[in-house]
Every structure is written in structure tokens, then in C-alpha cells.
Design brief:
Layout: E1 24-28, H1 29-34, H2 39-47, E2 52-56, E3 59-66, E4 77-80, E5 86-94, E6 105-114, E7 123-130, E8 135-141, E9 156-164, E10 172-181, E11 191-193, E12 199-201, E13 204-211, E14 219-227, E15 231-240, E16 245-246, E17 252-253, E18 259-267, E19 276-282, E20 288-294, E21 311-318, E22 327-337, E23 342-343, E24 346-348, E25 351-354, E26 357-364
Parallel strand pairs: 17-26
Antiparallel strand pairs: 1-3, 2-3, 4-5, 4-11, 5-6, 6-9, 7-8, 7-10, 10-13, 11-12, 14-15, 14-24, 15-16, 15-18, 18-21, 19-20, 19-22, 22-23, 22-26, 24-25
């Protein structure tokens, strides 16, 4: 901590970005309110049980956490050298949690720990990439001017990049990717998750930023619908293939004409599973007439990476088959674990609703 407690503590104190060197961490109310130094860092501490909670006038002011023996945060990333050693570790980072406006510049600061000798002067590569693979911003070169071959082992090196988001950038979600490469060979170092050693590819996703504002759901759900204790469904928006707004209360189906459903989710906690979302169209005989099953955003931002409180808008497209009989059809949605095909239980205001939620009922034209 480098907050008020540091003035009274006789021992050594550190900024929260150097948590890995500390025995205890103190997280203040302003940190979790402002999501500092990052959303993932705040969420990591919230998963731990505090040793002590400091209150002022009945309100939580600071939480004290014992870090000795605490698990590594999931966002800690290692880059492996040719000898198979974890040479560079991302121990923390700073990145704005608020939405970024097109045309604005966002600063990303990475705190990099040198864990093994680095013989080469590596270049760092930072990219901001959209769901379709489009690169909208890039920064590369020596990390803040310090040659990696001169890094001392065990020392944390901060590296900052100003990333300007083009004014023409469409609203949406964009990944901030980080990697290291040899300028002579252009070969990228492989990245792994430090806690599990799971491979992350050559360019690791550090976090996701939101550019612009999310549209508001035309059909808001009050109260929202809960899927397990994992996610809430806040509402939906209905459109034709051409983007014309549809009213779910008066919607009629025509064979072959696709209907676009945008669902608005909100994470309740860190999810340990990458869930698949579905929207199904169930016919008057109870049979499945059409379906769209997909990881949210096509897997671009898996549910296991959603910070608690994060809202995500996801789009599904369904069309009624030409031979579908007339009658009443139901749009239902839910989340399931693709490994077991087990759906999350659905509830609203504490009332169980099964394993799928009825979005609306519509008629198929004769």
C-alpha cells in the first residue's frame, strides 16, 4: 500500500502494483470504486478473504489481505525463452476500466518482472484488436527505452504505451494484447498463464476495453434474470436483418426471414467456466425449430474473463425454416457448460424457472 496506512507503518511499504513482493496488501475503498490499478486486480482481491476490514462511520474503508500463500492471480502471464524458462512475467498492469471514446488515447502500463537472463534485446508489441481480427492501435519497441538484455533478475520494469483509438472506430469490445519478439528473427516468445502454465499463444490478451457506449436494451428485464450465481440477463433488443427495430410483443415470424436478438448480460462474479449461450426457437409441438448456440461474442471474450459487474451485449441470429407449421413459437435462452452440456439454473426474484428463460412468445404467419 502507498495510502494513509503507509504513514503509520514502520516496515517497508510498496505500491499495490508490487503486490507480489509484499506479505500483506491493503486495498482502499477508492481502489475498488475506481477499479485501480485494474479491474482484474480489484476482482482478485475480492476473491480473497480479508484478514481485517477497516470501517469508518459504518462504511468499509480498507481491506487487509494476507498474501502469504495466496494463489497467483489469473492475469499473471509468463513469456518463455528458448531454454524453456519463464523469462518475463507480467505481475500487474494499469488500464482504464471506463469506456474509451473513439479518438481518445488510453495509456497502458505493464509491470514486468525479469525472472531469467535475457540475452537478446527484445522488442515489446502491444496491439488493440477487434472481434474480427482488425488491429486499431499498435505500439512496439524497447520497453520504455530499457534494453531487456540489461534487465536485472528479480527487478520489476514498468513499461508504458499510449494507444490512440481512431476516431472512426466502431463501438464495441477490443482486446489489449501483449507480446515480446526478437527484432532480428521476428520470432515471438510463447506466453503461458503463470498459475496453470496453460499456453496463451504468442500474443497474450491482458484485458478487454470497451470503445463507445453500449446500446440500451429495448426490452429491459426488471428484475433481471439470474443464471446460477454466475450471470444476470438485463434485457434484449430485437431487429430485422436490416437493423430495423422489432417489438417482441407484436413480432410475427415469416419463414426464411432472420431475426436478430441481442442479449445484455452482466457478470455476477468471476466465472471459472467458459459458458456457451443459446437462443432457441421452440415450435408449437415443443420441437426445436431453430437455434443459435455460441460462446458469447463468438469466443472473443470468454465468460471466464468477464470481470464481476461487466456488462456484455451479444448477438444471435435465427430464421424459421420454410416448412415450419403455423402456430405459437417461443424464444428461450440460457447458458451451459460445453464440456458437460449442463445448463445453469434460471431464477428470477429467487423463484426457480428451470434451465431456460422465456424471452417472448410469437406467432408464425400462415
Amino acid at each position: 500500500t502507498n495510502g494513509p496506512f503507509s504513514y503509520f507503518f514502520r516496515g517497508r511499504t510498496l505500491p499495490i502494483t508490487f503486490w507480489h513482493e509484499a506479505d500483506y496488501a491493503i486495498v482502499y475503498a477508492q481502489d475498488w470504486q475506481r477499479q485501480l490499478p485494474s479491474r482484474k486486480a480489484v476482482a482478485y482481491f475480492q476473491q480473497l478473504t480479508p484478514e481485517q476490514v477497516i470501517t469508518v462511520d459504518g462504511l468499509d474503508y480498507a481491506h487487509i489481505y494476507d498474501l502469504r500463500g495466496a494463489p497467483l492471480p489469473g492475469y499473471v502471464i509468463d513469456w518463455v525463452n528458448e531454454q524453456g524458462e519463464a523469462a518475463i512475467r507480467l505481475v500487474s498492469y494499469q488500464l482504464a476500466a471506463a469506456p474509451i471514446k473513439p479518438g481518445e488515447t488510453v495509456r497502458a502500463i505493464f509491470y514486468l518482472l525479469n525472472r531469467a537472463p535475457i540475452a537478446t534485446n527484445l522488442s515489446v508489441l502491444v496491439r488493440v484488436v477487434g472481434a474480427k481480427g482488425e488491429e486499431i492501435a499498435r505500439a512496439e519497441g524497447w520497453p520504455w527505452g530499457a534494453a531487456t538484455s540489461s534487465w536485472q533478475e528479480g527487478v520489476v520494469w514498468p513499461d508504458g504505451h499510449d494507444l490512440t483509438i481512431p476516431a472512426t472506430t466502431p463501438d464495441g469490445y477490443y482486446r489489449v494484447e501483449l507480446g515480446f519478439y526478437d527484432p532480428e528473427t521476428q520470432a515471438l516468445l510463447p506466453a503461458v498463464q503463470a498459475a496453470s502454465a496453460a499456453p496463451l499463444g504468442d500474443l497474450a490478451t491482458v484485458d478487454v476495453i470497451q470503445v463507445g457506449e453500449l446500446p440500451r436494451p429495448a426490452q429491459s428485464l426488471h428484475p433481471p434474470v439470474a443464471f446460477g450465481n454466475q450471470a444476470l440477463l438485463l434485457g434484449a433488443t430485437w431487429q430485422t436483418a436490416d437493423g430495423e427495430a422489432l417489438d417482441p410483443d407484436t413480432l410475427t415470424l415469416r419463414s426464411g426471414e432472420p431475426v436478430t436478438v441481442r442479449l445484455f448480460w452482466q457478470a455476477q462474479q468471476w466465472m471459472g467456466t467458459d459458458y456457451t449461450a443459446f437462443v432457441h426457437l421452440v415450435g408449437p409441438d415443443g420441437a426445436l425449430a431453430a437455434q443459435a448456440d455460441q460462446p458469447p461474442l463468438g469466443g472473443f471474450w470468454p465468460t471466464s474473463a468477464w470481470p464481476p459487474g461487466q456488462q456484455v451485449a451479444d448477438t444471435f441470429v435465427l430464421a424459421l425454416p420454410a416448412d415450419a407449421p403455423p402456430g405459437e413459437y417461443r424464444f428461450v435462452t440460457g447458458l451451459y457448460d460445453p464440456a458437460t452440456v449442463t445448463r445453469l439454473p434460471v431464477s428470477r426474484s429467487g423463484k426457480p424457472l428451470g434451465d431456460a428463460f422465456l424471452l417472448t412468445t410469437v406467432q408464425r404467419e400462415r
